[in-house]
Amino acid sequence: MSKIIRTEKPSVLPFYAAAAAGLVLCIVLPVYKLWALAVMLVGAAAAFAAASRVCPPQVTEREVPFHTGSGDVDQMLTDIQQKLDTLHALNDALPDPQMSAAMDRMERAGRSIIEVVESNPAKAKQIRRFANYYLPDAVHVLEQYAAMARQGVRGENAASVRTEVERNVGVIATAFEHQLDALYASESMDLSADLAVLETLMKNQGL
After folding, report:
1. How many helices (H) and strands (E) does the chain have?
2. Start-to-end C-alpha separation, the chain
3. Rounded mean pLDDT of 71-92?
4. pTM (2 decimals)?
């Protein structure tokens, strides 16, 4: 998903060369006369052009996770990706197969949401609640669950928390999948309309 962004920074040397050439010509020519002023300007322009060929713009490259054309959308997708990476790491650390299966579903839905919004940044407004609340809260809960499992926390309260998380992780995964499905709502409507038109055309032609 990462992109290479290339930027060009013009060299200042051509400007210095033009200024130097103009200064020298101002000294040696009577620039108070129109023809001399014209010669000075032409000379400065020639010096700028020559220096530009010798000193091309400096090209720099930097890698960014996303480049949708909107800084806010890029940042949102980056945050989602980081939280999904955290979710993946938590999944690897938890041996419970039921928990792992639900977390796999969450991650798959989250990665697919990123792909949809990256290809159509206008849909970013549809996932703001997911990005700002649902996903961070889910990752936080699972981090706490993993910490208790790792530390071997025992007791009635800890057992109650673990049971509650295990009972609801599938619901969370389903909510993620519903968020992904909602992104395709308009496309589904368009497809249904296209199919209806096609069916009508086929009937009119006796097919």
Report:
1. 8, 2
2. 45
3. 94
4. 0.64
